[in-house]
Amino acid sequence: MDTTTRTHTHPFVPHLPPRVPTEDGLRRGEEFYRDLEERRSVRWFSPDPVPVEAIELAVSAANTAPSGAHHQPWTFVATDDPDIKHRVRLAAEEEERRFYRDRDVPQWHSALARLETDEHKEFLDVAPWLVVAFAQKHTPQPDGSLRKNYYVSESVGIACGFFIAALHRMGLATLTHTPNPMAFLNQVLARPSTERPYILFPVGYPADDCEVPALDRKPLAEALVVLRD
Ligand code: IYR
User: Fold this and answer.
1) Domain 42-206, architecture per CATH
2) In this structure, which long-range contacts are made by residues 31-37, counting pairs with CB atoms below 8 Å and at least 24 apart in sequence?
3) Which of 34, 55, 90, 141 sits at 20 to 30 Å (Cα–Cα) from 104?
């Protein structure tokens, strides 16, 4: 297309990534998929340290995610401070005790049975890092006003997907942990009320004796419907 005929009201720049030959693209896609296929959510972490650079790289990857109106409505708050991690653990376990005691939601309990989860969240102390993705419903502007954000949940969800994939690429494991409710994280991590906790990620290497539930992924034929004439 002849871009000289386009008129813009805002700055645009050329985007000319080198064309990937189809065969190479398929090979790369296969490699990427095979790598992600190895990923599992982990609840037993090694206490071995993880350098802050790994967290910075994973959040840099997350920060490339597409977002509504390019508002990038996320904040990732990371801590390796044992006291802060312990405060998070105590508050999360408090909420989870209520959740697991609450027999008003039997479907939840049967759906979760095969994961053998309970209110004990030792991994919040053991994993060397806790990273909380916060979703910004509004973003404070330098002039003190609040900018409204759009498709916040979708945008932060995609960013979290990139974050998880980047950790996996570095040989690190995580868990998409969502203690219910999570509002305590605003207090413990000193975040403003314009943000809500979205996912709490313990991050580290899997423990030497780590186990995961024996689960299958659903077949591609159930995940993908190709419609053609
Ligand atoms: N938030 C609880 C319960 C829980 C819910 C789902 I959906 C899971 O896939 C796993 C756990 C907990 O973290 O134990």
Assistant:
1) 3-Layer(aba) Sandwich (3.40)
2) 35/168, 35/169, 36/165, 36/168, 37/217
3) 90
